[in-house]
Amino acid sequence: GIMREVMGIDIMERQLQELLQVDEVIIVSGNCDETPWVKKELGKACANRMKLEWNSKNIIAVTGGSTMAEVANSLSPDEASKKLIFVPARGGIGEAVQNQANTIVEKMAQKAHASYRVLYVPDQLSGEVYASFQKEPAIKEVISQIKSADMIIHGIGDAMAMAERRNSPPEMLKKLLDGNAVGEAFGYYYDENGQVVHKVLTVGIQLDDLSPEKRVITVAGGKTKAKAIRSYMKGAPSSTVLITDEAAALELIQGN
Ligand code: BG6
After folding, report:
1. What's the rounded Cα separation, in Å, for the pair 72 and 110?
2. Which end of the chain is more exposed for a tag (fewer CB within 10 A), N or C?
3. Distance of CA 130 from the midpoint of ligand 1 (Å)
4. Ligand 1 site, residue 38, Cβ cutoff 6 A
5. Average pLDDT, integer, range 108-123
6. Residue with the nearest Cα to atom 4 of ligand 1?
7. ipTM greater than 0.95, yes or no?
């Protein structure tokens, strides 16, 4: 539209797409750190983008977070959405109920007149529990649906902010600080070079599952998330569509 051209948003989208080497970038105006409705705009933009191709999709895996919760708020049904199944991307990683993936997929399914599955697996499993959980038939079924998801929608967090939100133990906080972790996505913590500093052990999507055949939509905005977005994007699949806001985009472009 004309407004987007006047504001140079189209140009920024192309610059950022080049810079991060992703398939597509969509930028909404504002800074969601300062203005809460900007997060709603991110949610709307994601809902619209999802609709463009959910005709050809079956299973959509979704992470938790306040940004994903806004995506859920913006969904609406159409002919193609009824056959969709929404699944949480990973086992519940310590979030307030309204920001948990299980809650969000239920809401998405309700809004899109689709189906959903939940995955009630506790936060941060120990090695043995992790192994036995994966053998549990009910969990196995959901895991196999998660693995065959053809669209993945997720948020990104600032590493230390996420670690604190998850009430991580002091030794883990130390590991993240020592490793200079800046970004977090899917329970993986990354440093500025995109190297994994720490990984939360849980069932569901692992980094290797983010193959280029799957459409991945990343939704994260706010100036404070620029570093986190850059770190995660170093290893993101080429099929990624990044939906962000102007403040994060400017910071990413200027501080490259
Ligand atoms: C969490 C996800 O639920 O939300 C994280 O497990 C993600 O992977 C985070 O980084 C993003 O949260 P928000 O509230 O900033 O959208």
Report:
1. 9
2. N
3. 22
4. no
5. 91
6. 65
7. yes
Give the ligand 1 atom nearest the CA of 66.
Answer: 14
Q: Is 100 a pocket residue for ligand 1 (Cβ < 6 Å)?
A: no
* H or E segment and range at residue 243: strand 240-245
Amino acid (1-letter code) at residue 72:
A
Tokens of 176: 């993240």
> At 199, is the pLDDT very low, low, confident or very high (cuts 50, 70, 90)?
very high
Q: What is the pTM of this model?
A: 0.95
In the chain, the amino acid numbered 221 is G
Neighbours of 222 (CB within 10 A): 24
Lowest mean pLDDT among 7-11, 40-44, 173-177, 226-230: 7-11
Query: Quick check: 153 and 242 in contact, CB under 8 A?
Result: no
Residue type, 87: V
Query: Three-state SS for 179?
Result: coil
Q: How confident is the model at residue 105 (pLDDT cuts 50, 70, 90)?
A: very high
Q: Which two tokens stand for residue 14?
A: 């192309």
CA–CA distance, 237 with 218 (Å, rounded to integer)? 11
* pLDDT of the residue at 123: 65
142 φ, ψ (degrees, to nearest 5): -65, -40
Angle at 43 between CA 42 and CA 48, to 5 degrees: 100
User: In this predicted model, which residue has the larger pLDDT, 126 or 20?
Assistant: 20
Query: What tokens does 75 get?
Result: 């969904």
Both tokens of residue 104? 């969000």
